[in-house]
Amino acid sequence: MLLHLSTWPEVESYLTHRRAIILPIGSTEQHGPTGLIGTDIITAQAIAEEVGRRTDTLVGPGIPVGMAHHHMGFPGSMTLRPSTLIQVVRDYVVSLTAHGFRDVLFINGHGGNMSSLDAAFYEIYEQARLAHGEAAPPVRCEVCHWFLLPAVVALQRELYGDREGHHATPSEVAVTQHVYPKSIKIAHLDPNPGQADFFRDWRDFRDRFPDGRMGSDPSLATPKDGERFLHAAAAEIVARHGDFLNGV
Amino acid sequence: MLLHLSTWPEVESYLTHRRAIILPIGSTEQHGPTGLIGTDIITAQAIAEEVGRRTDTLVGPGIPVGMAHHHMGFPGSMTLRPSTLIQVVRDYVVSLTAHGFRDVLFINGHGGNMSSLDAAFYEIYEQARLAHGEAAPPVRCEVCHWFLLPAVVALQRELYGDREGHHATPSEVAVTQHVYPKSIKIAHLDPNPGQADFFRDWRDFRDRFPDGRMGSDPSLATPKDGERFLHAAAAEIVARHGDFLNGV
Amino acid sequence: MLLHLSTWPEVESYLTHRRAIILPIGSTEQHGPTGLIGTDIITAQAIAEEVGRRTDTLVGPGIPVGMAHHHMGFPGSMTLRPSTLIQVVRDYVVSLTAHGFRDVLFINGHGGNMSSLDAAFYEIYEQARLAHGEAAPPVRCEVCHWFLLPAVVALQRELYGDREGHHATPSEVAVTQHVYPKSIKIAHLDPNPGQADFFRDWRDFRDRFPDGRMGSDPSLATPKDGERFLHAAAAEIVARHGDFLNGV
Amino acid sequence: MLLHLSTWPEVESYLTHRRAIILPIGSTEQHGPTGLIGTDIITAQAIAEEVGRRTDTLVGPGIPVGMAHHHMGFPGSMTLRPSTLIQVVRDYVVSLTAHGFRDVLFINGHGGNMSSLDAAFYEIYEQARLAHGEAAPPVRCEVCHWFLLPAVVALQRELYGDREGHHATPSEVAVTQHVYPKSIKIAHLDPNPGQADFFRDWRDFRDRFPDGRMGSDPSLATPKDGERFLHAAAAEIVARHGDFLNGV
Amino acid sequence: MLLHLSTWPEVESYLTHRRAIILPIGSTEQHGPTGLIGTDIITAQAIAEEVGRRTDTLVGPGIPVGMAHHHMGFPGSMTLRPSTLIQVVRDYVVSLTAHGFRDVLFINGHGGNMSSLDAAFYEIYEQARLAHGEAAPPVRCEVCHWFLLPAVVALQRELYGDREGHHATPSEVAVTQHVYPKSIKIAHLDPNPGQADFFRDWRDFRDRFPDGRMGSDPSLATPKDGERFLHAAAAEIVARHGDFLNGV
Amino acid sequence: MLLHLSTWPEVESYLTHRRAIILPIGSTEQHGPTGLIGTDIITAQAIAEEVGRRTDTLVGPGIPVGMAHHHMGFPGSMTLRPSTLIQVVRDYVVSLTAHGFRDVLFINGHGGNMSSLDAAFYEIYEQARLAHGEAAPPVRCEVCHWFLLPAVVALQRELYGDREGHHATPSEVAVTQHVYPKSIKIAHLDPNPGQADFFRDWRDFRDRFPDGRMGSDPSLATPKDGERFLHAAAAEIVARHGDFLNGV
User: Fold this and answer.
1) Chain B residue closest to A25 (CA)?
2) Running DSSP on this structure, what letter comes out for residue C127?
3) Closest by Cα among F107, F115, F104 to F148
C-alpha cells in the first residue's frame, strides 16, 4: 500500500488496525561514470515498496535529496544541509504521528544520511519531551541502511568480492538496473578507481576519487543481480523489523 | 532528461550548453474520498517530465511533501512547516547553482506551496546578496502553478464547469488517472460538498469541507481528460517559460 | 482606537466585547525619484487607522520594514529576510492571541510582503497544532492588500489609466501626499520609465527599472486623490472584512 | 531628515558626505493604569527625531515592538522573543550598511531591549567576520538608553524624587504627554504601587506589580515636563554621541 | 556537591529538599601576554564551587566557551555566536527544570556573556509561556557577574588602584594563579597598555588593545591575592544570593 | 599543552609549526547507581590530555553537556538538542580555524554525541563551501570514540567479559576512579540490570534500564583498571590519529 496512491479514507481504515509506516530516504548525487544520480532513492524506494508488499505496511513519500555534501564536486549532485534534513525528517514524522502513526521505519539508501537521521530522531523525541513531558504520545523511529544488512553484504562479497567497493558499487547499480533497465549506462571505467577508505569535504572527496567511485567496479552489475539484492534486502528487513512494523 | 536517471558526466555535458533545470513540487495530502494523496506531486512530476521532453531540459528531483497544514485534519496528510520548506527549496537551488545551473523552474501542483516558494526565492536572493554582494553569481528562480494556467482553466471550464471546484478537482484527479490508471478510486461522493471559497487552519478546513473536497466533483474525471490536461499544461508552459529555459 | 495610545485597562475593557485587531504592515524602500521611502507603511497605517475608526476596532503597531530585497539596489531601502519577517509576524500574533485577541487583520501596503505574510499564517497555525492539537485556541489571520482592492484599482484606472504603473504609483504617492502634504517631492521624471512586468533579484530590478519606478507616473498624484484612495480603500475593507472584525 | 519622508536620491546624496543613521527602538507594553502602551516607542521616536534635527542626521524606521515578555501578564502588551529581535536588528543594520551607512545609533526607550540589542551587535559583527574576515566592511553599532542618561536621571530626581519609580514613570509618561497631549489619561492610582526592584517572568512581574507600575507615580507627569525631558535627553545625546554621528 | 562527581540517586535525594543549582559560565579567550586563555571559566568555576561548598548547593557543569567575538583577533580565542549561546543556556536550564530544579544561578566570569545570558533567560521564560501558559512550571534564573561585586571591586581598588584595568586584570589573573599556581606566566608587559574604555568589533579591539590588555597591569597579581578575591566573591554571593539558593 | 592554561602568544607560537588541536566532548548524564554523572566528560578529558602530552598537541576546551535525551528520565541528566550541539561544534571549529588551526580531533566519551558530531562536521564543510567555494580554507574534522577503540574493547573483554555491558560500564567507571579516587561510589547494584541492546526515547530507556545501567556491572571497576584503560586508549589514539595531528 503506497500512501501517494491511497485516499484518506483508506488511510483512516488502515489506522484502525496498524500504526506503522515505511519511509524511503535516498540522495541525489553522483554515482561514478555509469551510476545513476538517483541511485540511492531508487534503491531505497524499490526496497521499501517490496517490504511494504510483504508486510502489508503503508509506504510513505521518499526524501529524494539527502546529505551529500561530499559529492558536491561532481555536477548534478545535490545536498541538504544536515540542519535542513533534520527539520525535514522531523516534519515528516510529526505529521504522521498526529494521525495515529507510531512506528516509523526509514529505509535508507545513503551513508551520508545516517547521522542526520539519528540526530533527527533525538530532536523529535526531545521536542516531544519538552512540549508534553510524560504525556507525549509514543513515537518509535527506526532506520535500516539496506546496503549494510548482513544478507546484502554477503551477496556483495559473493558476487563481486573486493570489487564491490564503497560508493557507486555494483550492488546498488544492479538494483537500479533492475528497476530501470532502460537506463543502464556504459562508460569507460578506469580499472584503478580511488581506493581511500575515508574522505573529508567535497574537495577532498574529488581528489581521492576522481571519477566518483570509491574502489568499486560497477561494470559487474547486472539487472538480475539487482533483483537478488532487492529480495535479499527485503527479506532481511522483514525478518529484522517485522515485529516493529507490527507494533511489537 | 531526468536527473535521477542521468550520470554526472551526462550532467557535465548538459551544462556545457544549457543552464536550466525543472523541479516538480507537490504535496502529500488528502484529495477527497477518491483523490490520491499523492495527487499534487504526481501531476507536477508528470507535467514537468513532459515539459522536459519537449524542451530537452533536465528535470530534477521533486519535493513530494509541501505545505499542507490545512489538510492535517485528514489521515495521511503530511506537511512541512513553511520555515522548513523554505530551507529545502533554498538547499535545492544553491546545490544546483554551484554546478553552473542558473535558471530554475519549479512546476508546482499545490496552492499551499505558493507563498513558501516565493518566500524561498527571496531568501535565496537575499542570502546571495548578503554573502557576495554584486559578485553573487546570477540565479533566476521561476515557478509555474500548472492548475492556474489559462489553457488549463479553460479546459476545466469546458469539461466540468462549476463542478471543477477548488480542491480534489476533476482536472487534477484526471491527470493522476492518466498516470496511474490502476489506481482509479470509486467512492460515494456527497453531491453537495463543502462550498466555501476560503478557509483558515486545519480545523476550520475540515469543518467547511467535511470530506476534503472544495466544491468539486472528481467523479467526472477520466484518464483521457487527464491526458488532455497534461498536454495542455505542458504546451502552455513551453510557450510561456520556453525562453527562460533556454536562458533568454 | 490605537493600541499605542491606549492603556492596558482600556484594552482589557475592549476585550470584554471584541476580539479583533488591525495591524498595518508596510516597507521601507525606494519609491522612485519622488516617492517617499516610507510610502508603504504610511499608506497602510493611514488606511488601517481609518478602518479602525469606522469599525471601532483596535489598531496595533505597524511593521515598518518588510521584505524588500528587490529594492536593495537603491540607497535607503531596507529589508527583512522572509525568514525574519515570518518570525516577526508570528511573535506579533501570538502575543496578541494570548490576551484573547482572535481575529487579526493585516492591512498590507507592499506586494513583497504577501508571501511572507501567508507563510507566517501557516507557520502560526501549524505551530499551534503541533503544540496544542485540537486544544489550540482559535486564531484567525487575514490580510488585505489595499492597493489590489477592486475599488482602488477602479479609481487608479479612472484617474491615471496606464500611467498608474506597478511601483511608485501615483495612487500610493497620492495617499502619502494626503498624509504628509509637507513632504511632496518634485524631481525630473524620465517620461519612459522601466516597463517590464516582472523582475528577479535586486540587480535585475535596478537594471529593468533604473529610477525605481515600474512604469508609473507619480507626477499625476495629488493630495486630493490621496484622500479619495484612502476612503475608497477603507470603505471597501469595511465592506469585505467588517464581519471578520466583528468576530463573525 | 527622516528616512520614511525621504526619496532614494536624497539618501544617495546624504551618503556622499555622511555615514550615520539613527534608529529608534521601543516596545508595545503596558505602562500602568495611565501610561500609554506605546510609551517606549513614542519617547524613543521623539528623542531620535530631535537628535536628528540637531545633528542633521538621518533617522530611520523604528522597532515598535521589543522584548517585553515580563509585561505579558497585562492585556495589550506585545513581545518579540529575544531570538527574533536579534534577527530584526541584524536585518535593519545589514540592510543599511550595504548602502554605505557605517555608524548606526539606536535610541532605546525600553530596558527589556538592552540585552537583545547588545547580543545583536555581536551577532552582526561575528557574522561579518565569519563571512568576510578582515575584508568585512566596517560597521559601528551603538545604543543610547535615553532614560538612563545622567541629565535625564538628574531631572527625574529633581522633578519627582522617589516617585519616579522604575516603570510607567512620570518622566516617560511626561514625554508622551508632550507628544500626544490629547491622549493624557486619568485613572485612580493606588498610592502604594508595587515596590520590588526586580522581577523574573511575566507571572512574577504581575504578582509584584499588580497595576503594572514599578513604584512610580505617573500622576506627577505634565506635558511641560515632557518637553524638558525631550530636550535634556537630546542635548546629552548630541554631546555624547555627536562625534560618532559625524563619523569620528 | 558537584554534579559531575555525583550519581543520579544522590541528585534525586538532593531534590527532595533543595531546588537550586549553580552553573559557572566563562570564556576561552586571550587575557593578555600573561593571562591564561581559560581565565574566565577558571575563575567562575572556582568561585562557583566555593559558593556551592558554603551553601551546600549543587554545582553543575560550566559553559567554557562564551561570547568573545571581540577577542577573535588574538590566536586561541574562541567564541559562540550570541544566538548559539542563547540556545545552550536554554538547553542547560530546561534540562534541569524538568527534574525539579527551579532556581538556577549562573556565576559568570566574562563581561561578553552578559547580554546573551539575559536574552537567554527571557527566551526561556517566553517559550515556557507560549508552550504552557499559566501552567508553566516556575523557573527562576539569576546571574552574578563576580568581577562586578562591590566587595570585589573594593579589593581591586585597594590592591591595584587604576592598574586593575578592564581586561586581563590583576584580580582575575590572581584567582587563576591561586587555582593553578604552576601556570603562572611571565612576559614583558608594555607599561602603557591600550586605555580606551570601549571597543566595537574584533578588529577594533585589537587596534585599541594591541597586546589584549585593557589598561591593566596583571604583573601585580599574586596567588595570595587570588585567594582573597575568591573568598571575597564567594562571601558576597552567599550574602546576596543565599536566599535565592534556599528557594526564598 | 592545554589551551585554557596557555596565553595567546603561546598559541601564536604553537601555530607557527602546528595546526592541530584536540577537543574533548562528553556528556552530563546518569551512569547508574554508582557511576558519576560527569563520567563521559571526565574520561574524554583525561584521555585527551594524555594524547596531548604524548603528541605535544594543544588540547582545547571540552563540551561537557552533550546529546543525552535518552537519559533524561534520571535526575541530574542534562542534554543539548542535536540542533544545539551541532551549532556548538560548528562555533568551536570555526573559531579555531580562523586562527590557522586546520586539524580538529574530537575525543568523544559518549555514544549519544556521535551523530550530532558527524552532522556538525558536514554542516561546517557545507557552510564553508556555500560561503567561499573552492577558496574556503581547508578544515579537517575527525572524531575518536575512545570506548570503541579495539585496544579498549579487548581490555574490556579481558577484565570484565560480558559484565562490561553498554552503559555505566566498569571500564568508563574505572577511568573516573583513576581520575577522581575520592569520588568512588558504593551502592547496591541489582545483579540483573536491564539487558536490552537498544532503546528509543527517554521513557523507553528508563523502562528498559530501571537503574540506568545497560547490562553492566560497574562494581568490577578499580582505579588501577582505569589507569590501564586511559593508557590503552591514548596509545591507540596516537597510533591511529598521530599522523592527522601532525598534519599529514
Assistant:
1) B64
2) H
3) F107
Three-state secondary-structure class, residue D57: coil
Q: Tell me, what's the pLDDT at D196?
A: 85
Best CA proximity match to B65, nearest among B28, B115, B38, B96? B28
**Residue B66 near residue B27, CB atoms below 8 Å:** yes
Chains F and C touching, counted as 3 or more CB pairs less than 8 Å apart: no
- Please state the φ and ψ torsions of residue B240, each to the nearest 5 degrees: -85, -40
The SS3 call for residue D149 is coil
SS3 B53: helix
Residue B197 binned pLDDT confidence (cut-offs 50, 70, 90): confident
Buried/exposed A42-71: b ≥16 CB within 10 Å, e otherwise = bbbbbbbbbbbeebebbbbbbbbbbbbbbb
CATH of the domain at D136: 3.40.50.10310
Q: How confident is the model at residue E218, as a pLDDT?
A: 98
Tell me if chain F has a CB within 8 Å of the CB of D130.
Answer: yes
Indicate yes or no: CB of F38 within 8 angstroms of CB of E3.
Answer: yes
CA distances from A71 to A212, B149, C110, F138 (A): 8, 37, 41, 16
Task: Strand D140-145: give its sheet, edge to edge.
Answer: D58-59, D20-25, D103-108, D140-145
CB-CB neighbors (< 8 A) of A185 in chain B: 7, 10
Phi-psi label, residue B100: left if phi above 0, alpha if psi -120 to 50, beta otherwise = left
Which helix (H) or strand (E) is C239 found in, with range?
helix C223-245
Burial class of residue A146 in the structure, from the number of CB atoms within 10 Å of its CB (0-12 exposed, 13-18 middle, 19+ buried): buried
Query: Is the ipTM value over 0.90, yes or no?
Result: yes
How many CB atoms sit inside 10 A of residue A114's CB? 19
DSSP A25-82: E-----BTTTB-TTHHHHHHHHHHHHHHHHHT-EE---B-S---GGGTTSTT-----H
For an interface test with C, the pick among D10, D13, D37 (most C C-beta atoms closer than 10 Å) comes out as D37
Residues in E closer than 8 angstroms to A130, CB to CB, are: 94, 98, 131
Q: Do D141 and E70 touch (CB under 8 A)?
A: no
Range of the domain at E116: 3-245
Query: Given B78, B99, B180, which is nearest A95 (Cβ)?
Result: B78
**Residue D195 is which amino acid?**
Q
Alpha helices in E17-162 (DSSP H): 39-55, 82-97, 114-132, 150-160
pLDDT one digit per residue (tens) for chain C, 248 residues: 999 999 999 999 999 999 999 999 999 999 999 999 999 999 999 999 999 999 999 999 999 999 999 999 999 999 999 999 999 999 999 999 999 999 999 999 999 999 999 999 999 999 999 999 999 999 999 999 999 999 999 999 999 999 999 999 999 999 999 999 999 999 999 999 998 878 999 999 999 999 999 999 999 999 999 999 999 999 999 999 999 999 99
Q: For residues E57 and E90, is the Cβ–Cβ distance under 8 A?
A: no
Q: How many domains does chain F have?
A: 1
pLDDT in tens, A172-223: 999 999 999 999 999 999 999 998 878 999 999 999 999 999 999 999 999 9
